[in-house]
Amino acid sequence: MGCPSHGQFKQTPDKHLQSKFGCPKCGVDNRTQLRINNGKDGFLEYFKSELSAAFELLSDYVDVKSEIRVRCLRNGHEIKTTPDSLKQGYKNGCPVCIRLEPKISAKEFVKSAKVLMSM
Fold first, then answer.
1. Per residue in 51-77, pLDDT tens?
2. No. of H helices and E strands in the chain?
3. Are the beta carbons of 105 and 65 closer than 8 angstroms?
4. What is the DSSP-derived secondary structure letter of residue 48?
5. How many other C-beta atoms can be found within 10 angstroms of the C-beta atom of residue 68?
6. Are strands 55-57 and 68-72 parallel, antiparallel or unpaired?
C-alpha cells in the first residue's frame, strides 16, 4: 500500500480497514500531535484555573519537560521551571516568597498553640 506522506508500507487489508489513519506512520504522527495539543491545552487550562492568581506565564509552552518562565505576581520574582514541576510544586505560591516569609520561633509557636488549645 502507499501513503502520499510516507511512501509504501505493508499492511493486510483487514488492518488497513480497521485503522483510523491507514498508514501506520500517519497514525503515529496524528497521535503525537494530539498528545502535544492536549498537553498544551491541558496545561494552559490548569494554569489559568489554578495558578493565574499567583503567576504570570512569560514563555510559550513546548512540552511538560521543557523549561518555561513565570513571574510571581506578588513580588515580581522570575522563576524558571517546567510545566510538570509547576503543576506539582507551586500550589502554595512562589517558592522565593515562601522562603523569604518570616518564620515564627518555637517559643511563639508554643504560645500560639496554648492560646488555640484553651479555646
1. 999 999 999 998 888 999 999 999 999
2. 5, 5
3. no
4. I
5. 20
6. antiparallel
Write out the H or E segment, with its range, that includes residue 81.
strand 78-81
Domain spans in the chain, listed from the N-terminal domain onward: 1-51, 53-119
Average pLDDT over residues 31-53: 80
Alpha-carbon span 50 to 81, nearest angstrom: 16
Map residue 56 onto helix, strand or coil: strand
**Is the pLDDT at 34 greater than 80, yes or no?**
no
Residues contacting residue 48 through CB under 8 Å, at least 6 positions apart: none
Closest alpha carbon to 70 in 86, 89, 84: 86
